[in-house]
Every structure is written in C-alpha cells, then in structure tokens.
Amino acid sequence: MMQKIQRFGGAMFTPVLLFAFAGIMAGISTLCMNEQILGDLANPDGMWYKIWYVISEGSWTVFRNMPLVFVIGLPVGLAKKQNARACLEALVIYLTFNYFLSTILSLWGPFFGVDFTQEVGNTSGLASVAGIKTLDMGMIGAIIIAAIVVWIHNKFFDTQLPEFLGIFKGSTFVYIIGFFVMIPVAFLAALVWPKIQMAIGSLQTFLAGSGAAGVGIYSFLNRILIPAGLHHFIYSPFLYDNVAVNGGIVAYWTQHLGEFASSGVPLKELFPQGGFALYGMEKIFGSIGIALAFYATAKKERKKQVAGLLIPITLTAVVAGVTEPLEFTFLFICPPLFLLHSVLAGIMDMVTYMVGVVGNFSGGLIEFAAINWIPLGHAYGGTYVKQIIVGLVFIAVYYFVFKTVILKFDIKTPGREDDEEVKFFSKADYKEKKGGAKGGNAYFQRASDFLDALGGPENIKDVTNCATRLRLTVADVSLVQDVSAFKAAGAHGLVTNGNAIQVIVGMDVANVRDEFEALLAKGGNAAGAARIRIGCPVEGEVIPLEEMKDEGFASGSMGPGAAVVPEADTVYAPEDAEIAMVFDTKHAVGFVTKDGVEILIHIGIDTVELNGEGFTAYVKSGDKVKKGDKLVSFDKEMLTEKGYDTTIAVLVTNADQYDKVLAIPGKAALKDTCIEVQ
Which residues are identified as catalytic? Predict the structure, then answer.
C-alpha cells in the first residue's frame, strides 16, 4: 500500500511543476498592470496595459483549467504502459463523466440538494469544466477520475479481442469500459460531493481560526514527510484545491494581488489562509543556517571542498526552493537532525505568521519577489521587513543549534567523515573524464548507472518520478545496492521502503527517467543489445585496468577489463560458469560464463614467480561453478610482505566478440557489478 501511495504522490507532482512559472508570470503581469505602482504607464487604455493583459490571460491557463491539467498529468506518472494514450483516455473519460454529471443535476438537482440554476462560481458549488456546467470537484475530483482511468488502462489496454472486433482494442476498449463505469460514478458524485463541499466549508472556517499553532503543525508535517515522499499530500490540497480557500491558495493569492495592494488592511486580516504557504522560509533562511553550520563544523583541511559542495546546493534551495539536494546530505547520516530541522521549520513559520506575514511564500527567492515583495512591497514594506528580520534571526538559530548538535554528538556531516579524503565527484563525472558518458549523454549515463545499482532491468516493476525523485518498485530489494553506489552515480540519496525505492536525482529527474525508460524498453542497453554484467570476484575497490602497475595489463594487450584492489583473501566465481583452466601456479584461473563471456582472473602482479606458494585452488578445469563458489584463496599478508602487488586483474579474453567492455569503478562487494559487456 505504501508503494502505491508514494507512486501516486510522485505522479501528482507532474502537473504541479507547471504552476511555479505560471504563478510567477501571473504575479509579474499583475505588477505591470498596477496603476498604483506604475502610474499612467499602467493606464488600462494604454498599449502597455493591453500587452500585459494578454500575457496575464495566458499565465492563468493552468489555474483556470486545473482539473484538466491534473486529469491529463497523472497518467504520465501512473500508467504502466502507453502513457500518452492513457492521457488521451483520461481526458475523454473525464469529459464524459462531467457531461453525465451535468445532465443528472439538470434533471434531478433538487433531489441531490443542488440548485443547478445558479451561476457557476462563488458559493454555488458549481464550476465550468471545458465549457461543461458541473459540480465543482476541483483537483480532487480530477484525481479520482484519473486514478480510475489509469486502473482501467493498466488492466485492460492489452486485452485481446476477436479479430472482427479489432477496431475496439487498446484505447477504444479502455474508453468503452470507462464510459459505462462513469455512469454510476457520476450518480455517486451527485449524491456525495455536495456533502463534501459542506464539510470543506467547515474546514476552511476551522483553519482560518486555527492561528499560529495550526501553521506550525502544518509546516512541521510538510517537512518531516519529505523522506517518505508523502509531503505532497499535505501541501497540495492547500495550495491547489479548496481546503484552505476556494480555488486554492496559489490561485486565490495571485487573483487578488491588486485588491490586496490597494486595501491598506493588514495582510493577515485580509488573507489568514496565506499562513499555510510560508514554508519557503525554511527553504531560504533555514538552508543558509544549515549550510553555515556544516561549513563551520567541517575539518579545517576539508573546508574548501565542503564549500564547493554546499554553495551550489544551497543556492538551489534559496533561489529555486529545491531543498532535497541539501537535506539529503544529512538525512540518512542522522535522521534525528532532520527531525530537528522539521521542528525549527514549524517554529519559524509560526513566528513568521505571528508577526503578520502571509502570502504565497512556498517557493524560493524568485517566487518571494515576483508574487509577493515586488507587487505588494509599496503597501506592505514594513511587514516584509519583519519577515526578513525573522528569517535572519532563524539563520542564526539554525546555525547555532545545528553546530551545537553536530559537535556534541559528533555527527559525520560533510567534511567530518573519517575517510582520508572527501570525494564529491560522481562516477558519471569520472567516466566522462575518461572518455565521455555512454551514449554521449550525461542523463543516459546516470540512468544506466542507476539501473545497474537497482539490480538491472529485470528487477524493475514500474517507474515514475516527482519533482526531484525517480520512484520505482523493484521485484527483489536485495538486489538493490546501498546508497553509496547511487551517490557514486550522481544521486543525492536513496529512500527504501520495502520494495518501493526513491532515487533522489535532482531537478533533471524527468530527463533521467526518459533515458531510464528507454533502457528498460531495450533490455538495459541503448543499442538494444544484450548487456552482460560480471560481478566482482573479491571485495575491494574496482579501478580502471589502465591504473594497474603493470604495462601488460594496463595496456589492455591481454584483454580489456577491470582491476580490483582486494580487501579480502578469497576469490569467488562472479557468475555461473565452467572452468576452462587453472594455472599450475594457482595464481590465475580462466572460465566461460553461462553467457559465453571468457574471463581470466589474475591474482597479483608477477606472482607467477611464487610457483603456487601462498595460493590454494578449489576448482579444476572442467568444473561447473555457481556464482559465489570459491575459486582461489591467497595469503594476502605473505604476498605483501614479499613485496608483491596484490591487485587482481579481471580480463575479458574474447572481447573481440563484443562492442564494449566497461569497468565500473568504485567500492564493490561480491554482489556488485565489476565489468559490463555489451
């Protein structure tokens, strides 16, 4: 159930991504048409006003058609196949539902307690959806219908019909089923939704009177649920639906900017519901305080590296309002620190509300300015000065609280690790330096590496994304590598909840998902060819073959592959295979995997000189072995004492039969991939 909820929450964010730009443009347009700010330049009869009026009308597109945006947007993330067709099906079936509902209410409105003769809008409970007069079910109604359609699509899209009914297959069959399903659904909506509207009205009254405590609890929940990806269910109904105010906070605030600017009444009195959109405060001021605390507590010799990490991700949080890259630097290291962050966020928003600040402060600095400070600064400058003062105070609060807790409990935040070196470069960065990302595409590279770390295409059941996360369901969670593998591939973090996996990618997650799905469609390889993964035969650090301190191996003359700096003294079969040969000196073994890849494992450099001393072989030529069976053990300590380099070469000796042989550098356990053969 949790997997389905997380997947649904991620899909819901697909249409939400459109609102930030639309809101900014609506705010700028309102500003440019405000005579109190621009004087005669904004005269309604002038060309300046008319041009901005055109732009303003365009910017309201997504807000005025929010149900349509959601009903089309959800199948993008929820449909398991043929997403584009699912979007078409959802739109047509949603319109069909509204025609059914409109007709039902026009015939039997009084029976259902609905006066269908009223005009749409205001308190009538009616709305116009694509020109259809119907019940105002808002975003929630659209989501319900979209979810039903996606379920029908996933279950029946591939249904095979007799040949003479072939014209009704696919999307047509989904529409046929949806058509008849919508009839009882429309009757049910007519019966139930007017009562829900009454309950929402009561809830709006309660929230408006809940005061600062309600704002603080709301902001705490909105922050603490981020790791589970459930925070969408907290803020979305407030911002985009009727929970706090008719039409949602975002639309209502922007529509009434002109009225607020000329009112002279304190904003908190005009729009108390705006307290539920203050959580951008922690994105800006909280993020700065956290980053300063991390820098201050980093080891002296690592401060420069830590600054290089923190500056870009803090700017992302402050300017764009995307906090996950920063928050996930400490969430998994110390979850109680994230709990502390959530508590401070709730307190900060509560204090901000108490000093009289409300509005649409849900994003970063751009949104703060475009749809709050600039259009209303002339009228409420004093209020915004108080807001900035609260923010600066909480930068200090965050800084001192985080610094104290980090030092007291010795939390290994960035720059405080025990490793000899702090590495902030990803595996994708490394491979790009070595000759470019596979497919010539950085998104492809990350998608490919994530797919490897998730256990390969056969382990993926479904995939979607939200604003910053790749959300997946896997068949076998034991095949998923730990968070270090994902960070090495360029991710900010990993969330695992049973078989539900979330890879924290960043704002370009949609591009990565496109490449990821392309890989899935082609069996995990851009060319559509088979991709063969060879496991690591020994625990250790996988390095490029050219870094071996032996020209014969480093040059690739004995075959391409990878090298492993071993941390253990036993070599295991990396795949099911048949042993082709075991050297008399036992320092090398060759075998052929079930996929036909010929592998030679050579233990150490010049160890042939030992004539088998320190080596024990557990297999012989002709033996069939399973992945994980012992092949050879060696006395690592003795080899080192005698001055031998114990680096192990893993070579593909029939590489001429393949297009590519790629090493996968990084820390590796036995289950991890060492070499990829395409």
Answer: 466
